[in-house]
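Quick one: structure tokens for this chain, please?
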Amino acid sequence: MTEDSTPTPGRERSTRRGSTRAAEATLLLRQHTDAGWTAIEGTVIARALAAFRPSAPVRGRHDLGDFLVASDVVVARLREAVDAVRGGAAQRITCSTGERDELEQVTIQLVAAYGPPLLDLADAVHVVALACLQELLGTLAPTGEQVRVHVHIGDVSDDPRVVS
């Protein structure tokens, strides 16, 4: 026997404990019935589907031709741009595309700082969002008329940690 394969008292106890735990787990799994699975199947599948949300493509165009950007990237870039606007912070941003994956609509929900006029904040966010989309999507970026940027003030806060 080599030195590594020589049984030691501690190793034997550890192996026995591991075998006991495996046997207990096996017993519990065997006691699980199909009826129990049927009761929770819908919940498990719903959670799995909710956890995996593929990002839809958004079409852009530059000098070399068309390209696709993940909608998650578009949303992340919009969030950075909107959060840079003084007096507000992005709470939720969504976008939708048409059949050719061209951006059709953007919805931006904000938390606004207490005090500054909300219409000025909405205008600033609209301008920044359109500029960000132009930079990101090139010539296929929507103009103000082609895509509606909805600014919804969902909350007002005077906490400087919440809004810039």
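The helical segments are 9-31, 34-51, 71-83, 118-137.
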